[in-house]
Amino acid sequence: MRRLNHDTLELELTVNDPKSYTKPFTGRRTYKLSSFPLGETMCSVSDMQSFQKDIIDQTLPPSSPK
User: Fold this and answer.
1) Quick check: is 10 in a domain?
2) What is the model's pTM?
C-alpha cells in the first residue's frame, strides 16, 4: 500500500504460492480521495465481477477449444 499523491492511494497485492498456483500473480487497485462520508459498505456484484476478471481469471489456464 502506498500513497501516490495527496489524493491517490494504491494497493498492490502479489500472491506467490506454488502449491496452489502455477505462477505468482499480482492485483492492483487505485483509490481516489473522496469527500463522501466514510460509512459501512456492502460488496456488490460488480466488485465480485471485477475481482473475478482481475485476479481469479488470471490464475486459470487458457481454456481448450471444444
Assistant:
1) yes
2) 0.49
